[in-house]
Amino acid sequence: MATNLLKGKKGIIFGALDENSIAWKTAVRAHEEGAEFVLTNAPIAMRMGKINELATQCNAQIIPADATSIEDLTNLFEKSQEILGGKLDFVLHSIGMSPNVRKGKEYGDLNYDWFQKSLDISGLSFHKVMQTAEKTDAMNEWGSILALTYIAAQRTFPDYSDMAQAKAVLESIARSYGARFAKLKNVRVNTISQSPTMTTAGSGVGGFDVFMDYADKMSPLGNASAVDCANYILAMFSDYTRMVTMQNLMHDGGFSHSGITQDMIDVLSK
Question: What is the CATH architecture assignment of 10-268?
């Protein structure tokens, strides 16, 4: 049930590809809760996805932008303020891609040019987004900036490859820029570490369906769904979380603090 949680708030949502993506579900829920926003994605991703459908559903405009391009990001932040009629209250960074993972490269045989691209797209782009927001003076006081991450930044998982390093960079940037933005404009910066979720990006990791089942059994509450994550994002965009910043927030049904669960013991005992 909508409660106008974000009524009057304006923002930018990066990374909505199709109805399976967390960014897509966040946009739908944000619209239901009264927010206005601009949608953005890389031009190539826009050709692959259904973002125009989402824009119609949410009465939102689309501005294509490569999140690794300062020129594109500057245009995005400047035009978004024009479209929305003022500064921004929230930004969601839901971006991640590894050419090495997509091409099935073994971790001991990485293409380093692709590795750098993984870091740029999935990690450094978060710094570029915030630096551009700062330089264009795009954020309102007490705004909220979020990025999606994964626990592979702290633990090893088969086939996650160089995305683990990219997510570690992302989380470090959130802490460092969070300290800076707090002093500049009381803007808070956090990452949300989500359960494995069957998005287009997630399904590209080898053995993902097996791992989802494992994670579900290792999480006392089960895996957090994409819709649950979207609702958590909305809470972090709201005024109820104004003093939360520089945190890596675990949204994983308890997976990150479970040694072993009874469900997993039952499986191993068979």
Answer: 3-Layer(aba) Sandwich (3.40)
